[in-house]
């Protein structure tokens, strides 16, 4: 038996009413590796990330975090059952999520945002959480902004706080959903360089992105999603450099300037 | 100016009875504080029903809001005090009476819960769903999200409107003299009955209510603005 992947997705399907968004997606993310996910708008990338931490309930399929089934569990008779929300919540803290719209909580300071989950969800003492929070803010180079409110920060700084907040729950893997897509071009680099450092530290990550140069540089594997299916996957040199699929080639041609 | 004019603004009688009148004013404050608590608690519950995912809950919330928001507070006070005990009494087959203070608090609390429910609902719906999803993604349970992420923001957002509603509620407490809650207006009527000089006493009551409401509301508005500005800089 080989090593258990950090995240395993097996035949994941999701429909919203009659609309089939994910049509059977399977892949593994090994511990310490970076998987980039690319694909046209509407191809189901966000839905896939959101299904992994059960912000959306998959219609069928399985997700394992370090071998532990997420969301569903088989009962004694072998029947698949939705796990109670309390168990889903326990599993969710194994995954740190970073959204396109930073989604910081505006009524809390930067540090307050970062230590909220460690205190309320992990049950840390305030002192421990503050120490951890300061460490996470240092990793995104924002130690000096700890006492500010989010509204005072630039978009790039807000997104780095969001990354620190996700790191502070000490997840097994990080999920990034187009983390630079709502940023002005001059602010994307500071976020990408923080993510590059995380990847260098061996953080397990799934990154949905349109930053092809970044994907090529940091990814171990790239998945190209098309109409709810993985159309092509492989190392970045292959998928981004010499794609076999015609659709992937067409998609990438839009990103070559 | 005529004598009648000067008599109506001569506040010496009002001042003479200041102790009993002040005691009355405190009753306005008690009724206000208790009914505001009821209105906030019931209003929040109704608002949570109105944003619930399943329609029967939403429907109950809507009925609550429309029922109480459209009930005149004057009628509600009288109805709760005189009709409700008869109805409840008939149900349990016993004579019932509700203390005037309790009737006043129930009536005003429920009428204003209709307004507060709408303010809460608007505040809750104004919170970007992303804030809640970020909290879920951190493993926070729904109750925790409500308490730590949603309500603190709702309270800040709704404060300006809530202050206006608190002012209306405080004004509405002046009708509880109808059912013999010994508030300022009630005491004023008592003094008028002995002194037979209604005009200056009504003037005094009007000025007192105005001063209390104006200074308290202005102070609260100033403080709440300062508090809000820190966040929505
Ligand atoms: N909550 C939802 N309800 C209905 N349709 C949705 C919902 N979320 C996403 N979709 C649809 O699913 C498809 C894939 O969306 P999404 O996963 O956001 O794509 P991507 O992130 O690749 O742009 C789109 O057609 C979108 O309209
Ligand atoms: Mg998306």
Across the major sheet of chain A, the strand order is 8-9-10-3-11-12
Terminal CA distance of chain A: 45 Å
What form of chain A results from the Cα inertia axes? globular
- What is Rg of chain A? 18 Å
CATH class of chain B: Mainly Alpha
Largest interface: A-B, 30 and 23 residues
Which regions of chain B contain 5 or more consecutive residues with pLDDT less than 50? none
Distance between the termini of chain B: 54 Å
| CATH topology grouping of chain B | MetI-like fold
By CATH, the superfamily of chain B comes out as MetI-like
Integer-rounded radius of gyration of chain B: 22 Å
Oligomer: heterodimer
Number of helices of chain A: 9
Q: Please tell me the overall pLDDT of chain A.
A: 94
Classify the helix fraction of chain A into a percent range.
25-40%
Bound small-molecule species: adenosine-5'-diphosphate, magnesium ion
Given helix and strand content, the structural type of chain A is alpha/beta
List the helices and strands and how they pair.
The complex is a heterodimer of chains A (257) and B (233).
Chain A: E1 7-16, E2 19-29, E3 34-38, H1 45-52, E4 60-65, E5 68-69, E6 72-74, E7 80-82, H2 85-92, E8 95-98, H3 110-120, H4 126-139, H5 155-167, E9 173-177, H6 185-200, E10 205-208, H7 212-218, E11 221-226, E12 229-234, H8 236-241, H9 246-253
Chain B: H1 3-9, H2 12-16, H3 18-50, H4 55-69, H5 73-92, H6 100-125, H7 129-137, H8 142-172, H9 184-195, H10 198-229
Helix pairs in contact in B: 3-4, 3-6, 3-9, 4-6, 5-6, 6-8, 7-8, 8-10, 9-10
Bound molecules: adenosine-5'-diphosphate (ADP) and magnesium ion (MG).
Structure, described:
The complex is a heterodimer of chains A (257) and B (233). With 257 residues, chain A is α/β, with parallel strands linked by helices. Chain A has nine helices and twelve strands. Chain A has helices spanning 45-52, 85-92, 110-120, 126-139, 155-167, 185-200, 212-218, 236-241, 246-253, and strands at 7-16, 19-29, 34-38, 60-65, 68-69, 72-74, 80-82, 95-98, 173-177, 205-208, 221-226, 229-234. A six-stranded mixed beta sheet of chain A has the order 8-9-10-3-11-12, with helices on both faces. In chain A, strands 2-1-4-5 form a four-stranded antiparallel beta sheet, covered by helices on one side. Chain A has a two-stranded antiparallel sheet with strand order 6-7. Chain A is globular and about 50 Å long. The mean pLDDT of chain A is 94. By secondary structure, chain B is mostly helical. Chain B has a single domain (2-232), classed as Orthogonal Bundle (MetI-like fold), CATH 1.10.3720. Helix content of chain B is 82%, strand content 0%. Chain B is built from ten helices and no strands. The termini of chain B are far apart. The relative contact order of chain B is 0.16. The mean pLDDT of chain B is 91. At the A-B interface, helix 2, strand 8, helix 3 and helix 5 of A face helix 7 and helix 8 of B. The complex binds adenosine-5'-diphosphate and magnesium ion. Magnesium ion (MG) is lined by residues 45-46, 178 of chain A. The site of magnesium ion (MG) has 3 residues of chain A, from helix 1.
């Amino acid at each position: 038996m080989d090593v258990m992947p950090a995240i395993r997705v097996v035949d994941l399907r999701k429909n919203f009413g009659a609309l089939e968004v994910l049509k059977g997606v399977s892949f593994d993310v090994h511990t310490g590796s970076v998987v980039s996910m690319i694909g046209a708008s509407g191809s189901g990338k966000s839905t896939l990330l959101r299904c992994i931490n059960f912000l959306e309930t998959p219609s069928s399929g399985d997700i394992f975090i370090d071998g532990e089934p997420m969301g569903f569990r088989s009962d004694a008779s072998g029947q698949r059952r939705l796990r109670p929300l309390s168990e889903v919540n326990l599993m969710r803290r194994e995954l740190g999520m970073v959204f396109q719209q930073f989604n910081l909580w505006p009524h809390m300071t930067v540090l307050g945002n970062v230590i909220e989950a460690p205190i309320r969800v992990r049950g840390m003492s305030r002192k421990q959480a503050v120490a951890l929070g300061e460490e996470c803010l240092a990793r995104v180079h924002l130690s000096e902004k700890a006492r500010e409110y989010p509204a005072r920060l630039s978009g790039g700084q807000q997104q780095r706080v969001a990354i620190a907040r996700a790191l502070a729950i000490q997840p097994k893997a990080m999920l990034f959903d187009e983390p630079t897509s709502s940023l002005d071009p001059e602010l994307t680099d500071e976020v990408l360089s923080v993510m590059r450092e995380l990847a260098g530290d061996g953080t397990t990550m799934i990154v949905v992105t349109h930053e092809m140069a970044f994907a090529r540089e940091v990814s171990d594997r790239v998945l190209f999603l098309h109409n709810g299916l993985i159309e092509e996957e492989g190392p970045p040199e292959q998928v981004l450099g010499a794609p076999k699929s015609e659709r992937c080639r067409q998609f990438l041609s839009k990103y070559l300037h | 100016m005529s004598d009648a004019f000067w008599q109506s603004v001569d506040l010496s009688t009002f001042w003479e009875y200041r102790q009993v009148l002040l005691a009355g004013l405190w009753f306005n404050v008690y009724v206000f504080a208790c009914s505001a608590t009821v209105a906030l608690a019931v209003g929040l519950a109704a608002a949570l029903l109105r944003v619930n995912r399943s329609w029967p809950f939403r429907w109950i919330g809507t009925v609550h809001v429309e029922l109480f928001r459209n009930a005149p507070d004057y009628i509600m006070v009288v109805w709760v005090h005189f009709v409700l005990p008869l109805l409840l009494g008939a149900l349990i087959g016993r004579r019932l009476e509700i203390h005037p203070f309790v009737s006043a608090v129930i009536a005003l609390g429920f009428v204003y819960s209709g307004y507060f429910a709408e303010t809460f609902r608007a505040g809750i719906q104004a919170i970007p769903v992303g804030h809640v999803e970020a909290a879920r993604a951190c493993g926070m349970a729904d109750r925790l999200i409500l308490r730590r992420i949603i309500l603190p923001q709702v309270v800040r957002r709704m404060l300006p409107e809530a202050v206006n509603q608190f002012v209306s509620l405080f004004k509405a407490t002046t009708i509880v003299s109808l059912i013999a809650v010994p508030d300022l207006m009630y005491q004023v009527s008592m003094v008028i009955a002995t002194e037979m000089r209604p005009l200056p006493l009504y003037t005094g009551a009007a000025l007192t209510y105005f001063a209390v409401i104006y200074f308290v509301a202005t102070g609260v508005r100033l403080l709440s603005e300062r508090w809000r500005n820190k966040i929505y800089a």
